[in-house]
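Quick one, T. Sequence first:
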Amino acid sequence: CAMFEPQGRLLGVAHQTLVDADGPDDAEQVEYAPKIRGRRLRRELAANPAQQFLIHAQAVDRRVPPQFELVFVADREFDDGLALRSAAGLSARSCFVVRSNASRVVQVRSAPWIPAQRKVPSPENRLRRSDDDSLVDIYLKDIVEAVPLVPMCDLPLDSRGHVLRGEGRPARIAHLSAGGVAIRLARSSKRARRSGIDEQPVWLNLVVVRELDPPEGIKPLQWVLLTDLPVETPQEIRFVVDCYACRWRAEEFFRTTKDGMKLEQSRLDDAASTARLLFFITIKAMFLDTLRAD
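Structure tokens:
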């Protein structure tokens, strides 16, 4: 989790931790457990990535001075119904953009572009019915395929299809189109049912970003983004796209620490020593990021 100011300067990094909480009711419990090995480690890591996103978001939301506006950006492993509902309940100055797996049933208001044959029966794990008769249940992936798109922006990409920063020559320029629509998460999540957490339906916005004319033989770029930012105008949709494009800055940071500074080759196995190492490596990586940006 990396933090940037509006001008693009890296402000700080929240490193991944193990957590012993499975839901927002225990969000304050963070465990830097030394010498965790084998089955327990695999079980905790498998259960908690989405919860880590929420824990970091809540911690930053409380500690950053109130004059700052925050946008939390995360990749597909953080697409989790319970975390999304909880992140939507952060303070008014905090918003999020999370890349989606596009694999759930959601509700959307009926519109001419929605394919009627794609509508699905109401799921059994519906949280609560709505009095709005215009709402239909549909797979998110079918909305992604049908939502109207308009030309949005051009993005320089490297050979791996990642957004390229100022330095270097792009492998290609992606001509992106985008569109947005409001969706309603109205199904209960497995983590909430397992933890006995009472969930409520929540409205979010879906932004679909797609490259319509990729070079021959190249897989087109596509982002499916969930956000609580407004998406009613092209300018608002563009802001959501720009927020997610910044995520590749965090990828550069971790590539620097892992490949350049060999962080993963450390033999430290206690929490205090690991924390000190992460602190000094983070400062060094932030300095290098500033040199690249300047």
